[in-house]
Amino acid sequence: MRYHSPTSFDEAVGIAAKAQGVTRFLAGGTDVLVQMRAGAVLPDDLIDVKKIPGVRDITRTPDGGWKIGVAVSGAELGAHEELCRDWPGVVEGMELVGSTQVQGRATLTGNLCNGSPAADSVPGLVAAGATVTVTGANGTREVAVQDIPSRPGKTSLAQGEVISAINLPPRGENAGDAYLRFIPRTEMDIAVVGCAVSLRVDGHKIVEARVALGAVAPTVLLVSDAADALIGSTLDDAALEALATAARAACKPIDDKRGTVEFRVDVAGVLARRAARIAYDRAKGVSK
Ligand SMILES: Cc1cc2nc3c(=O)[nH]c(=O)nc-3n(C[C@H](O)[C@H](O)[C@H](O)COP(=O)(O)OP(=O)(O)OC[C@H]3O[C@@H](n4cnc5c(N)ncnc54)[C@H](O)[C@@H]3O)c2cc1C
After folding, report:
1. Domains in the chain, CATH or no CATH each
2. CB 27 less than 6 A from any atom of ligand 1
3. 0.90 exceeded by the pTM?
4. CA dihedral 183, 184, 185, 190 (to 10 degrees)
């Protein structure tokens, strides 16, 4: 195995483009190193992105959004007060990943690129309308987060492409988001269902919404029918019921020992209602 530690994304792209065989990027390593130790993945080229300047930075962009470096850990994200105020749902998704030890290493980018349908930070990013900057041989392009995972364990990134940043849009006024997951234990488990809701209110009325579901399909789902159920409502019982119905209808889950199809579909509706209530209270400044 060849270990590389490039000092720019262009250098990383050059190494990845020339690499033959199995290539992995190394961010926190909490997926890659576990897979290597288990013998499940044996990279020929391991490209460590942590020596690239700026990868540990969280910066406000000129439009009021955020640029998050690809090696920012969950712990660093959770310690950033301003980001937590703007996007509590995005941060709480990442903070659910693993233990204190895992939090010190694990990144949003690694969680996204590992390609797990149950990745806890991805629904929050999708509900937020986040994008990633992808750097390749021909420059950079911006891609919606929901378009990165292509199927379990796979991404849409071409060989020689690397994610160089995660971008969150400006939060603006009267807005809130939330992420909830169901796991059979209290922590350190994989989501059986996850749901994120992001919305904006004008007075009591919801004027914008995005709803994302995790672990109920091969990739995280952006459910526009669920968002439509919320928009124009004051989160009354009818809107919550329509939201739950739309969330349940979008699910195409697997059936396994951790949850049957029926259970996962039902829980998707329950979590959508609960996450919407939290996001709504946050948007109205009732809770943090
Ligand atoms: C004990 C334990 C508990 C866990 N609990 C959870 C949990 O509750 N929820 C959950 O969702 N996950 C959990 N995980 C999985 C893991 O911690 C997360 O997926 C984590 O966010 C991965 O981030 P990382 O930086 O460690 O990724 P890495 O292991 O460094 O990389 C993961 C993948 O991303 C790719 N990659 C990394 N950086 C880039 C880049 N810049 N561009 C393109 N591709 C890139 C790598 O090639 C690799 O395929 C757990 C893991 C452990 C060991």
Report:
1. 2-116+131-168 (3.30.465.10), 175-283 (3.30.390.50)
2. yes
3. yes
4. -40
